[in-house]
Amino acid sequence: MFKKILESIQTGRKRYVKISSAHLSGISYLNIGDAGLEFLEDLSGSGLKFKVRTTINPGCVDFDSAVECDPEVVEKQERIVRSLKNIGAKESLTCTPYLFDNLLRKNQKIAWAESSAALYANSIIGASTNKEGSLTALASAILGYTARTGIHLRSGRNPRILFEYNGELKDELDCGLLGYVMGLKAGAEIPYLRLKKYAGKILCYKQLLAGFGTSGSAPMVWIENLTPGFSSVKKPRRKIVLDRSELEEERRNLSEEAPRSHDGKLVFITGCPHMSLEEIKDFQGALGSVNRLSVEAWVFTSRSTYSEAFRKGLLMRLFEKGVRVFKDSCVMHCSLKKGGAHVMTNSVKAAYYLRGTFKLKTTLKSLKEFIEEYGGK
Ligand code: F3S
Fold first, then answer.
1. 315-340 exposure pattern, b = at least 16 Cβ within 10 A, e = fewer
2. Could you read off the pLDDT of 130-183 as tens digits, one per residue?
3. How many CB atoms lie within 10 A of CB 100?
4. Which among 46, 290, 292, 334 is most buried, taking Cβ atoms within 10 Å?
5. Does any ligand 1 atom lie closer than 6 A to the CB of residue 116?
6. Cα of 330 to ligand 1 centre, how many Å?
7. Is the minimum distance from the CB of 299 to ligand 1 under 6 angstroms?
C-alpha cells in the first residue's frame, strides 16, 4: 500500500513536501493501549522502514526504575519501543528532540508531532512543520514526504493576531501562563507576540510555547526579536492586549491549594517539556544551600540529557537533596495513573493534562516558589 502511495506522491509532487526529519508522538502505552501496540507490531513486522531521521516521544515508564509501575504496562511499553526501533526510530524517548537527538536547522522541512516540539522547531529554530498528528507523522516518516498544507504553503506562516503583553514575566510559570492565555484566544490562528518588558532566556519561551500548544492549535508563534525572519513578516492589524490578571486567572483555574500534609503522595514535578542541561544546572544551582527538600521533586528529561548531566556530576547533587530524575518517560507517568497524588508543578501543560487525563489535583508553582516553601532553610 505504501509503495502505491509513494508512486502517487512522486507523480504529484506539488501536493507534497519532501522532509528530512520526523518526530513521533503517541507512543505511551497509557495513551494508545493494546490496539496501538498491535498496530505498531504489525507495522514493524511488515518490513517497512523510516526514510528519514525519526525520533520518538517519551513513553510512560523509565526502564531503569520501573518498579512503581504495573509490570504489564512496563512490558507493553517495551514492546512499543522495540517495534518503533525495528522500523528505524532512534530510541530518543523525549519531547525535546531538538536539543540532542534530532537537531534542526533553519528552513528545514520536517514532520513533527508533539505540539511543544513542533512549536519550538517553527518559532525558535525557523524550521517548517505542521502540528502533525501521531499517524500523519508516522506516515510521513515512512514516506519521506508530508502534505503541502498549512505552514508549508507560502501564506501558511502569516501571523493573524498581534498579541501585546506589557506585564511582568517573573519566571518560567508566568511564561507558560502567557502562552496558555494566548492559545485560548488564538485558537488555530498564528499569533505575533510583542513583549514590552522581557528579553529573557530561551527557557521562558520553551514554557510559553508548551502552554500555547496546550490550549491553541496553531503550529507557531512569531516572537518579536527572536523568531528567524520576524522583522520581514507583515504585522497583523488585529491586536489583543493582554494583562497580568488573565495569567492569574488561569493560574487559579489550574490550581488547588497544596495540602500541608497529604495521605497520598505530595510531589513537585518539573520537566514538561523535558528539562535541558541548562535547566538542570539552573535547578541544581537554585538548590545551592538546601540540605534536603521536605517533599520529593521529580525531574523529567531525555536519555541524552540524563547521560550528559550524570557525566558532569549534576545528578548526584540533585539526588542528595531528594530529587528523583526520570528519563524515557513523561510527566504522565505510569505511577501517577493510579491516582491519589497531589502534584505541584511549574508546567501549565503538565497541570492541564494531569488534571484532565489522570484526574489529579494540581498546584502551579514556579521552581523558585517551590524551593522557598519546601527547601527547609
Ligand atoms: Fe513532554 Fe509529556 Fe510534557 S511528552 S511536553 S513531558 S506532557
1. bebbeebbbebbbbbbbbbbbbbeee
2. 999 999 999 999 999 999 999 999 899 999 999 999 898 999 999 999 999 999
3. 18
4. 334
5. yes
6. 5
7. no
